[in-house]
Design goal:
Chain lengths: 202, 202
DNA sequence: ACCAGATCAATGTTATTTCTTGATGCAGTT
DNA sequence: AACTGCATCAAGAAATAACATTGATCTGGT
């Protein structure tokens, strides 16, 4: 019986950084030393409400979701993260306070993780990463803001359409229950919306 | 979308300890304070190779397996653990060294966990637990040794029969792939063995 | 040459997850 | 009062994944 091995090639991460600014050999070394691979299986928690978010996660393969569970037990998804993107609770990570968010895996997912300590170390030894991470976080910020705007100003149907656009690479990988929880409607209603779309086209 | 809540009655654990030696009210208090409930879902890791085993796990409901993955990616199961038994990597736990073993859930599984620190605390405040845990570990030791002996001296068929006996409570709960990985044969060959058994009986 | 067991590929069986549909309800518009 | 946009609950249907069986073929050790 074979199990998933965590194959540990740092390549995708190095490629990612290189896409911003080429790294020196030494910097690659640093990354190699400070980032650790880790496999999460479907449904497994990466971060649980009440815990401190101790890692920056870079997804190499698979898909994560970050969400909040409200008092009624309803799940609200803040973000999906698949290949070559980052996910963490920045607030909890930097302030070292318990998170009120959850992160878990929607598929078996490989990530590279840096701890807080190691990230500081990285910044100190290779200041270039300040730039990289600044840009990276700015990007996240922008898309978050876009999502907020989108969200507060639209009907369910509009949100659905907008979601299909901005997450087009994921729309046939994600179960509809998850999309519904992102859009903020019930799976049943999403089903009806889709139905309507199909009919409208013909 | 609703998520699973954990129900947290300590009863089974207290009963277990009481089965050794009756506990005082104070001792029960201690147990209540130092053990934490935790739910693992099917396929979820409890311990991952490379991590330090930080908890003693007492299974209340469900079933765990502890295994090692070799260089070829083959899984060798060391132990199954269901209701009212313990599981951990003792070595990693005590020496605080990275484990080379994995533990994961074969079913949704409820455990109570003590951390290293809390366990020491428990021993200090209620020395009676030294006895309890000594006996408990001796028991594990004995069955481990039995397994080893069984293993090095038998054919696959003998190992299968012996497994059916000593794990009789689990034989219709465990998938055969898992049993095969315990016995040390391929699932296909196990299937044939079982077939042979059935035929032999008629 | 034979036996215990592996490997590979195909197929069958069950269980689990996901999706759809209908019935009904309810709070805000118009 | 009726209509729209959504929720809730229950039941089935459809899709997928997990598990089991079987046949064919191979291998290393006696």
């Amino acid at each position: 019986m074979k199990e998933n091995l965590l194959q540990t090639s740092l390549e995708p991460l190095l490629d990612y950084f290189n896409g911003f600014i080429p790294l020196s050999g030494e910097e690659k070394q640093l990354v190699t030393k400070l980032f650790k691979p880790r496999l999460y299986r479907k449904r497994q928690y990466v971060l649980q409400e009440g815990d401190i978010c101790a890692q920056f996660n870079f997804v190499v393969r698979g898909c994560l979701r970050m969400y909040k569970v409200d008092e009624k037990g309803n799940t609200h998804i803040i973000q999906f993260t698949a290949e070559n993107w980052w996910l963490m609770d920045i607030g909890s990570f930097h302030l070292k306070t318990p998170s009120e968010l959850n992160i878990d895996a929607l598929e078996d997912t490989m990530v590279f993780q840096v701890s807080h300590e190691n990230l500081i170390d990285l910044y100190t030894r290779a200041p270039k990463f300040n730039l990289i991470f600044r840009v990276l976080i700015e990007n996240s910020f922008v898309s978050l803001q876009k999502r907020l705007l989108q969200n507060i100003s639209s009907t369910a149907e509009e949100r659905y359409l907008s979601f299909m656009q901005s997450y087009s690479h994921l729309t046939n990988r994600l179960p509809q229950v998850q999309m519904a929880a992102f859009i903020g409607i019930t799976p049943e209603f999403l089903s009806r919306l889709r139905n309507k779309q199909v009919k409208a086209k013909s």
